[in-house]
Write a structure and sequence with these properties.
The complex is a heterodimer of chains A (about 160) and B (about 425). With about 160 residues, chain A is α/β, with parallel strands linked by helices. Chain A is built from 8 helices and 7 strands; from the N terminus they run βαααβαβαβαβββαα. Chain A has a 7-stranded mixed sheet. In chain A, helix 5 links the parallel strand 3 and strand 4. The longest helix of chain A is centred in the middle third of the chain and has 10 residues. Chain B is about 30% helix and about 20% strand. In chain B, the strands form 5 sheets. A 5-stranded parallel sheet of chain B has the order 4-3-2-5-6, covered by helices on one side. A 5-stranded parallel sheet of chain B has the order 16-15-14-17-18. A 4-stranded parallel sheet of chain B has the order 10-9-8-11, covered by helices on one side. The termini of chain B are far apart. In chain B, helix 2 packs across helix 5, helix 10 packs across helix 12 and helix 10 packs parallel to helix 13. Chain B has about 425 residues and is α/β, with parallel strands linked by helices. The chains are: A alpha/beta (about 160), B alpha/beta (about 425). At the A-B interface, helix 4, helix 5 and helix 8 of A face helix 2, helix 3 and helix 5 of B. The structure holds iron/sulfur cluster. Iron/sulfur cluster binds next to helix 4 and helix 9 of chain B.
């Protein structure tokens, strides 16, 4: 499985309230959620994002509430992967459970700039920066989590077992 | 190598003699919780899992608290969805408005969590129940769905940070100040993926309400859970509220911690978190001149009876500052009633505050006290992120009920000591 796209870059502690503000949580419609994704810190995001694009952020991405609406909004906006130095733990498991690929890779976060073209190979965790002609190695997933991803999320994993 | 208190509870629920930090395990759940925001998403996933019944009707709890009493048509539709599910599946612990409260006040009060339990909730502040010596943690909607379907959940066994509390807090210093101080010390990701275990002789000076508000904000330090050892105060609370059997776990003497911090409670001052992160804290003496437009006292962090008593003590026979809006929302119907019987509500209303029915309301910028552009609130809630209580250009400052009540009288952030 591969992903390819342009990078949107953010800092540390991007919380779930800015990923999808609570004022929109009276719905669980993914398209509607996606149309407000990131609007409180980057009003341009939803207008610029294209299918396959990638979010790169620093520490503790997705901190705050347990709302699964946050990874759903990001996925719904067309983002193919989030790369961060670290993720807040509830966001981390939610992303895996709904099938939004995420990678922890401090080196990639340090070196990638906004707008870079990135290609990710999920099988080996290699992130290629086509703009800068560099490559970075991300932490591969543990086996158990790979199984959930291979089953296409927790729902199918549970249905299967 | 010994285990932490959290690791012991997890090992027992995984049917293992021993677990280590980093190990992936599947555990049996004693309670699965959801609210009106997270449950609708969980129900979609539940349907896809190909099951028709929940694993145990007495071990699922659903509390519509975020946008209730319903604030608009969309939230009414969401609540309708979960109400119908609850009745259809005979969920024993579905609480309609009238008997409800904010979930993290309500669940312990209803005796649904006891020491030694493993609880997951599709709400990040599920970590609150660690005050009772249980392992409880927030998860997402898909995890909630899987938990309801199977009664099991997957976890990576966490490492732990130990906080040794010593000394006796000064007047006007509460659990909220303790946790704000700790978050300021270690940062909003200081406990990422880890347990926060609170121990030490200082615990004897912290009431259950203090402990609930400390455990509540473990997530604000990135923690997986916060947990307290079980002592006489815990057991008294459990006996008063619960009938379920409980089990006591203690950390091993040689348990391994990733960090140990000493906190001398006698040295703490009332503490305030400035926008826009809970670790941006200052002691009350260093706050300076911060004018406010709104004060909010309540939430799952600080809407319990002691919180309201402290606020009433300061507001008694006084008036809130002119032009300031003061909103008080008790955490549950029971606390609301108790506050009424003790005359606290009368104090609040005479002082010029409004008292709301239990609801998450303004805490997450839902309803009942949204901020306009450029406005500032001082709140006893737990998050001050950008846009949390309304307009993205509004500000939220976090503090204890004592600081909030003192500030309600002056219209700026004020040390309760300075109120006579
Ligand atoms: S009171 Fe606030 S923090 Fe607590 S459950 Fe409600 S929205 Fe969440």
């Amino acid at each position: 499985m591969k992903a390819m796209g342009k990078v949107f870059k953010y800092g540390s502690n991007v919380d779930t309230d800015v990923i999808i503000p609570a004022r929109y949580l009276n719905t669980s419609d993914v398209k509607e959620l996606a149309s407000h994704c990131m609007e409180d810190i980057d009003a341009e995001f939803v207008h610029k994002v294209k299918d396959g694009d990638i979010i790169v952020a620093d520490k503790n991405f997705g901190c705050g509430s347990s709302r699964e609406h946050a990874p759903l909004a990001i996925k719904g906006a067309g983002i193919s992967c989030v790369i961060a130095t670290t993720f807040a733990r509830i966001f981390y498991r939610n992303a895996i459970n709904i099938g939004l690929p995420i990678l922890e890779c401090p080196e990639a976060v340090e070196k990638i700039s906004a707008g870079d073209e990135i290609e990710i190979d999920f099988d080996n965790g290699v992130i290629r920066n086509k703009t800068k002609n560099e490559a970075y190695q991300a932490q591969p997933f543990p086996a158990f989590i790979k199984e959930i991803i291979a089953a296409d999320g927790l729902v199918k994993y549970v249905a299967k077992s | 190598m010994g285990m932490t208190m959290t690791q012991k509870i997890l090992a027992a629920h995984a049917g293992l003699d021993k677990v280590e930090a980093g190990q992936l395990i599947t555990v049996n759940l004693d309670l699965v919780l959801g609210n009106d925001v997270t449950t609708p998403v969980a129900l979609k996933e539940f349907d896809k899992m190909g099951v028709t019944e929940v694993f145990d009707k007495s071990k699922v709890a659903i509390v519509p608290d975020h946008f209730t009493p319903n604030k608009d048509i969309k939230s009414a539709e969401q609540c309708k969805l979960i109400r119908e599910f609850a009745y259809d599946k005979d969920i024993e612990n579905y609480f309609e408005i009238g008997e409800m409260g904010i979930e993290h006040g309500l669940i312990p009060e209803k005796g649904l969590v006891v020491p030694g339990d493993v609880v997951i909730g599709a709400d990040s502040h599920t970590c609150t129940y660690g005050a009772l010596g249980a392992f409880s943690t927030g998860i997402g909607s898909t995890d909630m769905a899987a938990g309801m379907a199977t009664g099991k959940g997957w976890f990576k066994v966490p490492g732990a940070l130990k906080f040794v509390l010593t000394g006796k807090p000064k007047e006007w210093v509460s659990g909220k100040d303790v946790i704000l101080h700790i978050i300021g010390m270690i940062g909003v990701d200081g406990a990422l993926y880890k347990s926060m275990e609170f121990v030490g002789e200082g615990l004897q000076h912290l009431s259950m309400d203090d402990r609930f508000s400390i455990a509540n904000m473990a997530i604000e330090a990135g923690g997986k859970n916060g947990i307290f050892p079980v002592d006489d105060k815990t057991l008294e609370y459990v006996k008063e509220h619960a009938t379920k059997p409980y089990k006591l776990y203690e950390a091993d003497e040689d348990a391994v911690y990733d960090g140990v911090y000493e906190v001398d409670l006698s040295q703490l001052e009332p503490t305030v978190a400035f926008p826009h992160l809970p670790d941006n804290v200052r002691k009350i003496s260093e706050v300076g001149d911060v004018k406010i437009d709104q004060v909010v006292i309540g939430s799952c962090t600080n809407g319990r009876i002691e919180d309201l008593r402290v606020a009433a003590k300061l507001l008694k026979d006084k008036k809130v500052a002119k032009g300031l809006r003061v909103i008080i929302f008790p955490v549950t119907q029971k606390v609301y009633l108790q506050a009424m019987q003790e005359g606290l509500l009368e104090t609040f209303i005479k002082a010029g505050a409004v008292v709301s029915t239990p609801t998450c309301g303004p805490c997450l910028g839902g309803h009942m006290g949204i901020l306009a552009k450029g406005e500032r609130a001082l709140a006893t809630t737990n998050r001050n992120f950008v846009g949390r209580m309304g307009h993205p250009e509004s500000e939220v400052y976090l503090a204890s009920p004592a600081v909030a009540a003192a500030s309600a009288l002056t219209g700026k952030i004020t040390n309760p000591r300075d109120i006579e």
